[in-house]
Amino acid sequence: MIPSNQRQLVQSTWRIAKRDADGLTRLFYGRLFEAAPAVRGLFPDDMDDQRAKLAAVLDAAVVGLSNLNTIMTDLHALGERHVAYGAEPEHYPVVGETLLWALDKHLGEQFTPEAREAWSSTIDVLASVMIHAQECAVG
Ligand code: HEM
């Protein structure tokens, strides 16, 4: 569970970040492919749709933080689909770190240490649900 003060910080910083969601996700994937070049080949050559899909899922997840039950089913299904994408549980930490890096770069001073902490907890929750779903799917 995400405490309500953290939830509010994530929601308020997301409202700012999503004004230029494409810029944020460009930063994110640019950095991800530098930090983990091996995962580049798992993604399509043309990343336009992928950036939009990531932003849409983050938007739904951030809104859904107010009631995690509403997003559990979708998040679980997203985790299951990631098996076919070739994502491994070991990849999640670099994805999480890179998202924090991109938010920091994108939001500048508005990404306070408290906001970072709140986002870190949120990403941990999303990743653990997805990893659990992946592991269940693999058996
Ligand atoms: C919090 C963690 C993550 C979130 C929220 C997330 C979100 C998404 C979304 C929304 C899509 C679009 C396709 C769909 O809806 O099924 C997607 C595709 C994809 N994700 Fe993730 N993802 C996460 C972690 C990862 C990790 C750790 C990897 C490992 C490298 C990964 C690799 C991929 C790949 C390769 C695709 C696309 C494939 C294709 O279109 O062929 N994702 N992800």
Notes on the protein architecture:
This protein has helices at residues 4-17, 21-35, 48-64, 69-85, 92-107, 113-138. It contains six helices and no strands. α1 (4-17) packs across α6 (113-138) and α5 (92-107) packs antiparallel against α6 (113-138). The chain is globular and about 35 Å long. It is mostly helical. Protoporphyrin IX containing FE binds at residues 39, 42-44, 53-54, 57, 78, 81-82, 85-87, 91-92, 95, 123, 126-127, 130.
Name its key features.
139 residues, binds protoporphyrin IX containing FE, mainly alpha
Task: Give a short summary of the structure.
By secondary structure, the protein is mostly helical. 76% of the residues lie in helices and 0% in strands.
* Secondary structure tally, helices: 6
How does the overall form come out from the CA principal axes?
globular
Helix residue percentage:
over 70%
Q: What top-tier CATH class fits best?
A: Mainly Alpha
Describe how the helices and strands are arranged.
Elements: H1 4-17, H2 21-35, H3 48-64, H4 69-85, H5 92-107, H6 113-138
The structure holds protoporphyrin IX containing FE.
The site of protoporphyrin IX containing FE has 20 residues, from helix 3, helix 4, helix 5 and helix 6.
